[in-house]
């Protein structure tokens, strides 16, 4: 069992929840100490479960912090080892080993491949003290019996196993990567455990030492296949196949304080300071790699290993005491910790391009005048492979000129006759004129700042990529225009001739097939991988001839890997679903647009609001006027009662009058008739008045109805004049109406009364 020393227990700084921080404010500056307050008996019936996140195993001990002793923390054997470093000194573990969880790790602090589980699994972070926050110390009481299970890397899957159809998957349930390595246990050596690079780093601590690897060398293609198919992280470590004894640079680099804290250089409890001879040896740090341009240009480059530094790493250093552990450093930390760049002879590269140095200065340093290594311009990087080139030709991008900024320059091949190296003459006027002509054509098609490509490997790569994506035949003029003159026509024609399959002359006039066959056999063949990648369909002229890609040169013979094909199908289906979703959104947007367009605009609503306010104001005035004309409710009730009273009195008097008239008619034996009494306008008419009126009316009618007779008028003297109104000829008499008023009776009224 791994045990935790008293010194390390006092340096723990666990994370507590926000609620605990709000309730219990820590006022002292003493470090928080975690200790075991209870050892759970395996025979108890109600054993608590582990409190760690995503862990449901049975707890073996209960821990508590010195600042919050009431907040207990039950943990299992595995989580206790991962988070607290194992059992503390003076506390004995439970005697019953049968109840020990299957996932308990009993591993040495220096051997990362030791495991106790068939399915290795790393304890998850649960917001408590993390074992990575302190230096892990070995224990003298660690169990090293026969029951200890160890895991060993037995096989690294080859590139064919990774890319073939029968590739294996990682055996962890929550992982979908392809398996990269095979581990076997000492207890069950026949059972293999397949793991990917991510799970290997989390479960086994990464790659073992170089002397424990099943292979002694690994190609770059194999490493690329492992990183592509077996890892999802961008900065996965790969095994280092360097020399077992690091080369001596002649300078002893002092280890940085950050590295000393991480590697346990200042911890007397670590094995390096137990008094062994190895701890007394001086540590040498070698520069093994300079980060390339491509690795620095990605979105999340590898950061400097110094905790307080956030710059991207520029170099990789390896210690002589731990050659498998890499230390990434930026230019500022390199100058501070290692004294700057080593000698030119000790650098892992022989040259650095100006663009590479510029990228390193911009991204990996905050100092404006950071020093960079100075290379001897007279000494070429590789005289055996370097070809004589013209220095006035340029590349279209940085990748055509250097291999990630750390390798040798790619040789330029120009159709212009080369100049002998010993002569060191300037380019001729013809070469300069030709280069100027090519550059003018490129600028005319591609705009100012266009650059030309005269490197045949780079030009072939561009040509093949363009024609492969175009998926159609193209003649030399179309290819030239597609690249906007970046590839001059002589270079383009030379590249196409090298890439054409079967380099026979289609314009040979000889009719002899045997002669043509012999002639084709004499022609040299290209040795690059672009040879035979294009087909030629001959035309009447060279400009009428078309080129098309031989797609059998594609991977797996015009096909894709099973995983890539499945990914393509999945991406296509996802694209179709996203398109349908976007179409639905477009339709809903159109419907909403129509609805909004059918509604009035803000200007129209303002006009309508003004009209409505004016109408409302006029209606309000009318309502106020109507309220002023409203009769008092009390007066209204009084009027109603008076009307009802008058009506009842009238009905009473009418009944009495009618009773009286009927009684008079009965008593007088019809001499006084009720009908005759009620025939006039009044309630009871006077016989004298009615008779006189009727007689006057009858006389007037008689006068008007008879023939006119001349009347003798008496001659009278008008003694006086009258200014009054002349009497009407129709006036007959006067009578009283029902209201007691005098009313004139005219002849016409008499006709109406008669009728």
TrEMBL record:
<feature type="region of interest" description="Disordered">
    <location>
        <begin position="39"/>
        <end position="58"/>
    </location>
</feature>
<keyword id="KW-0539">Nucleus</keyword>
<feature type="compositionally biased region" description="Basic and acidic residues">
    <location>
        <begin position="141"/>
        <end position="152"/>
    </location>
</feature>
<feature type="region of interest" description="Disordered">
    <location>
        <begin position="85"/>
        <end position="152"/>
    </location>
</feature>
<dbReference type="GO" id="GO:0010774">
    <property type="term" value="P:meiotic strand invasion involved in reciprocal meiotic recombination"/>
</dbReference>
<feature type="compositionally biased region" description="Polar residues">
    <location>
        <begin position="128"/>
        <end position="140"/>
    </location>
</feature>
<keyword id="KW-0233">DNA recombination</keyword>
<feature type="region of interest" description="Disordered">
    <location>
        <begin position="254"/>
        <end position="280"/>
    </location>
</feature>
<dbReference type="GO" id="GO:0003690">
    <property type="term" value="F:double-stranded DNA binding"/>
</dbReference>
<feature type="region of interest" description="Disordered">
    <location>
        <begin position="700"/>
        <end position="726"/>
    </location>
</feature>
<feature type="coiled-coil region">
    <location>
        <begin position="579"/>
        <end position="629"/>
    </location>
</feature>
<keyword id="KW-0175">Coiled coil</keyword>
<dbReference type="GO" id="GO:0007129">
    <property type="term" value="P:homologous chromosome pairing at meiosis"/>
</dbReference>
<feature type="compositionally biased region" description="Acidic residues">
    <location>
        <begin position="22"/>
        <end position="33"/>
    </location>
</feature>
<dbReference type="GO" id="GO:0000709">
    <property type="term" value="P:meiotic joint molecule formation"/>
</dbReference>
<protein>
    <submittedName>
        <fullName>Uncharacterized protein</fullName>
    </submittedName>
</protein>
<keyword id="KW-0469">Meiosis</keyword>
<feature type="region of interest" description="Disordered">
    <location>
        <begin position="1"/>
        <end position="33"/>
    </location>
</feature>
<dbReference type="GO" id="GO:0120230">
    <property type="term" value="F:recombinase activator activity"/>
</dbReference>
<feature type="region of interest" description="Disordered">
    <location>
        <begin position="503"/>
        <end position="527"/>
    </location>
</feature>
<dbReference type="GO" id="GO:0120231">
    <property type="term" value="C:DNA recombinase auxiliary factor complex"/>
</dbReference>
<dbReference type="GO" id="GO:0000794">
    <property type="term" value="C:condensed nuclear chromosome"/>
</dbReference>
<feature type="compositionally biased region" description="Basic residues">
    <location>
        <begin position="700"/>
        <end position="716"/>
    </location>
</feature>
